[in-house]
Design a protein that fits this description.
The structure holds three protein chains of three kinds. Helix content of chain A is 72%, strand content 3%. By secondary structure, chain A is mainly α. Chain A has one domain (14-507). In chain A, the strands form two sheets. Chain A has a three-stranded antiparallel beta sheet, with no helix packed on it. Chain A has a two-stranded antiparallel sheet with strand order 1-2. In chain A, strand 1 (69-71) and strand 2 form a beta hairpin. In chain A, helix 3 (80-100) runs antiparallel to helix 11 (270-295), helix 12 (300-323) runs parallel beside helix 18 and helix 16 crosses helix 19 (479-497). By secondary structure, chain B is mainly alpha-helical. The N and C termini of chain C lie far apart (46 Å). Chain C has one domain (3-499). By secondary structure, chain C is mainly α. In chain C, strand 1 (58-66) and strand 2 (71-77) form a beta hairpin. The chains are: A mainly alpha, B mainly alpha, C mainly alpha. Chains in contact: A-B, A-C. At the A-B interface, helix 6, helix 7 and helix 10 of A face helix 1, helix 2 and helix 3 of B.
Chain lengths: 514, 99, 516
């Protein structure tokens, strides 16, 4: 064995890393706030810090636009896709944070349990609720999660990607279990999410180990060189790709690794569900795209057939099982599964066009998703939020504006023109056809047609069904939720009619640094 | 010494872990199985590090240990809250989820 | 800003004004009427600016829209587009006038309570539909066309589902699912076309005049052709994807039905002529035999089922299926007579459908039901209504002297010259038309008047004013079709040239079977 070279201390590119540092740093400070600030002022400090961190991070991302380099000895990348998707994540986080601070729709507080440690149904819990306690630990968890997402999608080696994945996932497991109402369901969701999430991370990690065994390095550039240099497919490489992809398929909820999504979406507090559906999807696909394009792009024809199968299964299962759902959150979960299937088209195409198309798609999908969940929060009954579709009957008659807004989000999911979802779908499908996958596009549009049917079902329920009893009961939200819904609506419509500006940005950000 | 024996051992550990996750019904045992999978990966990293003669794999093993520790904290917290409510950690108990 | 953008902008602004300015129902209707009349005037100006036989696409305007995708906002008309713009702008004000009380009637039929804002919503949607339809007929960019082809489903969906009668939500969803499925298949075709254009010209473009010039590989053509054709066949509709139409017709208000079937469904046959033939000539030619057979089936399927209908609006729906069969047949026999006939037929069918639905709408407004059996002997209390129904029926069965006669004659002539047996079979369809129209007239209008129908009032001034322009147009074009044929003939010559088809030499003895 040759003696190893001494480990050189790498240069740290502070400005390029600043968005992540700001967010994670603010999260750390929030932990201190949690320990030292008096209870009365804690919540406002946390919220202020969270928004400040997100806005500063976004500003730095904008300043960094055009950067195209590897940082910290090549283990992270700051390039077009990373910045674009980090921007998307931060925007999503801002909208979700507004949903998290909403405290007018539930008479007893926000969407989170007063004390997560109090047992459901116990005397403690009743007292905490009666005193109007609000949990403030959610804010540092939320920022850690956001920082993890940003790290995840700019990681340029398998180790950092794994760490980003965990920083993103661990806080989410906790947040999933903190719903104020229906706490058992929420805790169950948290456990399910945690166990399956940890299981998938283990797959990812073992895949990383095999790839390391194959290439002798975990940096994507090194792996790509090793992949191109080999003469025949090695067992280690193949096994590594398979296990890494299994881990990723879990995170993006692709069939057959999607089972957790509906349960977890249903049980989690709605703002957290929104973040899972929007933020995690952006981050996980961002990382997935980088992994497959940079590290394994040279071997695309080897792994593509497996992706065909997974993609086809994913969009068809998502669309068809979604049809049978009677719960709006479960329905949106299957919708997100179907969208994951479409996005896999972008992952397997491995062309700059499909990269920019996927990024645009992710952005539009994420924003519309947050908006839709913002509306889901408002439909309530005595026991809190009611997600049964029956409660939506006649919403179009009693609350036409709200129903119209929700319809626009659904139309965007269905990819109908006038909404951003259509432009996203068109660019994605066109780039996929250009990559020679025309037949797959045909199957994808058939699945979209099926999926459109279940979005329409909701529109029918809202507009053409008679209200049950006195009609849906809709909480009046504060400015925070209203802002989220309105911003999401504006973005969805404007990107549907005039997408040029954002498409341009995505087009200029269509190459990964390696 | 043939390092490939360690790789085979790690693969066996990983498989045992995966089978444990799929078959066992006690959340704690499932969780332990996951940890076993992580440790199998660690063993593989360290062995490969030796085979390739660089330090990366060993460094990674340290990171993984730390991540695993964090995962234990989060995981046990979640499992404990459920245990306190339900007095059971079986993941087979009647589920509230409408599957 | 060119005349065509103005044409679109007027109803678009109108729709916002009508929908959102709080006004009494009557005032909203007046506003809607005013906006549509202005639109019609703009359309007439556009017609006068058009020079027949000049460039294929005229009054062209083009604006940057999404350069990243090579997509422009381009408008322009050819002969067919112009004729359909005329049809749409003519019918909409008349529909508003004839359907003045559509919303209230539908509410009475459904037993709904009156609610504030219903009228504003209905007429606002109607204007929005007009604006979108006009954009579709003038779109020169395939992307723009597709964009609206899908978007236009939204207003129609709500017009049926929200303001319709009977099983309206079922009908609305069925309509949407059919159209959307077709549209999404077309999206796949559009994606491939976009890519192919990028490959051939270097830059992706979906600008129609440029696309016409590029030569696409025949295999790829076949794929894209079918993707487009399926969408258009659902719209037009062609057997076997017709089942949504009778439901939509049966559950719509008469006004919605006119705009949907009389105007919007023309997009199907319009799209075939404007996109399928020029862009994919080889594929169109090889697909023609299949399509001709399907259209023959449509002619008979629609006609036969129309005879057995118990609901007036559904019956007109089936009649339309039969007529669309003729239109599509004329397109795919690849003769200039056939295609001129089809183009003219689109106008004629719009007029005859409008006439039928208007008269039927008047009957429904009086009795609040659309069941045929409820009506009997109406010619006694309401002679004018009965006369108008007869006129409308004769227009639909293409009696000589009506504009529809010329178009049907041309389609049959075109079929005979290309494939004689097809012409012969199609001619039999005319007999069916006589059967269903005359039976319908006989059942509802003749005989002894029943108790319930005894005290019905005849047409009032508003109803007559709405019908009069249609009657005039149908008769004038029946005797003097030149204003329309002048713009359609050069248009069809262009299309035939793009397809590379020539008329067969007149060896087939014309005299054998032309008995319209």
């Amino acid at each position: 064995m040759t003696p190893s070279a001494p480990v050189a201390f790498p240069d740290i590119q502070w400005l390029q890393l600043a968005p992540i540092i700001v967010v994670l740093g603010a999260a750390a400070i929030e932990v201190l706030v949690e320990a030292f600030a008096p209870r009365t002022s804690r919540r406002s400090i946390q919220i202020g810090l969270t928004f400040a961190a997100l806005i500063v991070a976004f500003a730095i991302i904008v300043i960094n636009a055009g950067t195209f380099q590897l940082v910290v000895a090549g283990s992270a990348a700051v390039d077009g896709p990373a910045l674009f998707l980090q921007g998307a994540v931060v925007l999503t986080a801002l909208l979700v944070a507004l949903l998290m601070m909403e405290r007018k729709v539930d008479p007893s507080g926000d969407a989170f349990a007063a004390r997560a440690s109090a047992m459901p149904g116990s005397e403690d819990e009743r007292q905490f609720t009666a005193r109007g306690y609000l949990q403030t630990e959610i804010w540092p968890l939320f920022l850690f999660c956001t920082g993890g997402m940003m790290l995840f999608l700019s990681a340029n080696d398998l180790l950092l990607m794994f760490i980003g994945l965990e920083i993103m996932s661990l806080p989410l497991y906790l947040l999933a279990g903190m719903a104020r109402r229906r706490r058992l369901l929420s805790q169950e969701a948290a456990m399910k999410y945690f166990l399956l999430g940890a299981f998938s991370s283990a797959f990812f990690l073992y895949g990383a180990a095999l790839i390391y065994g194959f290439a002798g390095t975990v940096s994507f550039g090194g792996i790509a060189d090793a992949v191109v240099g080999q003469s025949q497919m090695s067992g280690l490489l193949l096994g590594g790709i398979v296990l890494l992809c299994v881990g990723m398929f879990f995170k993006v909820a692709a069939v057959p690794f999607h089972e957790w999504a509906p349960d977890v979406y249903q049980g989690s507090p709605t703002p957290v569900t929104a973040y899972m559906a929007a933020g995690v999807k952006v981050a996980a696909f961002g990382a997935f795209l980088r992994l497959m394009y940079v590290a394994f792009g040279g071997e695309a024809w080897e792994w593509r057939p497996a992706f065909w199968v997974v993609a086809i299964l994913t969009f068809f299962v998502g669309a068809m099982i979604g049809l049978a759902q009677s719960d709006i959150k479960r329905m949106l979960a299957y919708s997100s599964i179907a969208h994951a299937g479409f996005l896999l088209l972008g992952v397997m195409a491995v062309t700059p066009d499909s990269l920019s198309a996927s990024m645009f798609y992710l952005l539009t999908y994420a924003i519309a998703t947050v908006g839709a969940f913002g509306i889901v929060m408002l439909i309530r009954d005595d026991s809190g939020e009611t997600t049964s579709l029956d409660a939506w009957r006649g919403l179009g008659r009693t609350h036409p504006l709200l129903a119209t807004a929700f319809t626009i989000f659904l139309l965007s999911f269905a990819g109908i023109p006038l909404t951003a979802g259509f432009i996203g779908k068109f660019t994605l499908f066109a780039s996929s056809a250009a990559a020679g996958e025309g037949w797959l596009v045909l199957l994808a549009v058939i699945a979209s047609a099926i999926a459109a049917f279940f979005y329409l079902r909701v529109v029918v329920i809202m507009f053409f069904s008679d209200p049950v009893g006195s009609g849906p009961s809709v909480a009046t939200p504060s400015w925070a939720t209203q802002t989220t819904i309105v911003v999401a609506l504006i973005v969805t419509v404007v990107l549907g009619l005039f997408p040029q500006a954002v498409l341009n940005i995505a087009d200029h950000a269509d190459v990964f640094v390696r | 010494m043939d390092p490939s024996a360690y790789i085979i051992l790690s693969a066996i550990l990983f498989t045992i872990g995966a089978i444990g996750v799929l078959l066992r019904r006690n959340a704690i045992v499932v969780f332990m199985s996951v940890e076993m999978m992580l440790n199998a990966a660690n063993l593989a990293f360290v062995t490969f590090a030796r085979m390739h003669g660089n330090l990366e794999g060993q460094v990674i093993a340290f990171f993984v240990m730390i991540v695993a520790a964090a995962e234990v904290v989060v995981g046990l917290a979640i499992i404990m809250t459920i245990f306190r409510t339900r007095r059971s950690v079986s993941i087979d108990d009647p589920s509230l989820m409408r599957n | 800003m060119g005349i065509l953008s103005l044409l679109i902008l007027v109803p678009l602004i109108g729709s916002a004004v009508v929908a959102f300015v709080p006004a009494s129902p009557t005032r909203s209707k007046q506003l809607a009427l005013a906006f549509t009349v202005v639109t019609f005037v703009v359309a007439v100006v556009a017609y006068l600016q058009f020079s027949p036989g000049g460039e294929q696409f005229q009054l062209v305007e083009s604006y940057q829209w999404i350069p990243a995708l090579g997509v422009t906002f381009s408008l322009g008309v050819d002969g067919l587009g112009l004729v359909l713009v005329f049809l749409a702008t003519l019918l909409t004000p008349l529909v508003i006038l004839a359907g003045w009380n559509d919303v209230e009637d539908a509410q009475a039929q459904n037993g709904d309570s009156q609610s504030e804002g219903q009228v504003r919503g209905y007429f606002g949607l109607m204007l929005l539909l007009l604006a979108m339809t006009l954009t579709l007929f003038t779109a020169l960019d395939v992307f723009l066309f597709y964009f609206l082809f899908e978007a236009v489903l939204i207003p129609v969906y709500f017009m049926i589902g929200r303001y319709g009668v009977g099983r309206r939500s079922y009908a609305a969803v069925k309509f949407l699912v059919f159209s959307l499925s077709g549209g999404l298949v077309m999206l796949a075709g559009l994606a491939v076309l976009w890519y192919v254009s990028a490959q051939i010209t270097g830059e992706p473009t979906l600008y129609l005049p440029e696309l016409i010039d590029i030569d696409i590989d025949p295999t790829v053509q076949t794929w894209i052709f079918w993707a487009f054709f399926i969408a258009f066949a659902i719209k037009a509709p062609l057997w076997p994807v017709t089942t949504w139409l009778p439901d939509a017709a049966g559950s719509s208000t008469p006004g919605t039905a006119i705009l949907l079937i009389g105007v919007l469904d023309k997009l199907g046959s319009f799209g075939m002529l404007r996109f399928c033939l020029p862009l994919f000539p080889d594929a169109a030619e090889s697909a023609a035999p299949v399509i001709i057979v399907l259209s023959l089936i449509s002619i008979f399927y629609g006609g036969l089922i129309a005879i057995g209908q118990t609901d007036m609006k559904r019956m007109i729906g089936y009649i339309s299926i039969s007529h669309f069969g003729f239109i599509i047949l004329g397109i795919f026999v690849f003769t200039s007579e056939g295609q001129v006939g089809s183009s003219f037929y689109m106008l004629g069918h719009g007029l005859s459908t409008a006439l039928l639905f208007m008269v039927v709408g008047y009957m429904i407004a009086r009795r609040k039901t659309s069941t045929i059996a409820e009506y009997h002997g109406l010619s006694t209390p309401t002679p004018l209504l009965a006369g108008m129904l007869l006129f409308a029926g004769l227009t639909a069965l293409a009696l000589p002297g009506m504009s529809t006669f010329i178009s049907e004659f041309l389609v049959l002539l075109g079929s005979f010259t290309r494939v004689p047996w097809v012409g012969a079979v199609a001619t039999l369809g005319i007999i069916l038309a006589a059967v269903y129209i005359l039976l319908f007239y006989q059942n509802t209008m003749t005989g002894k008047v029943t108790e319930k129908n005894k005290n019905l009032k005849d047409l009032n001034l508003r109803e007559r004013v709405a019908l009069a322009p249609l009657v005039v147009v149908v008769v004038v074009l029946g005797f003097y079709p030149a204003p329309v044929l002048n713009v359609l003939n050069p248009y069809v010559d262009d299309v035939m040239a793009q397809v590379g088809a020539t008329d067969p030499p007149p060896t087939v003895p014309l005299a054998t079977g032309v008995q319209p």
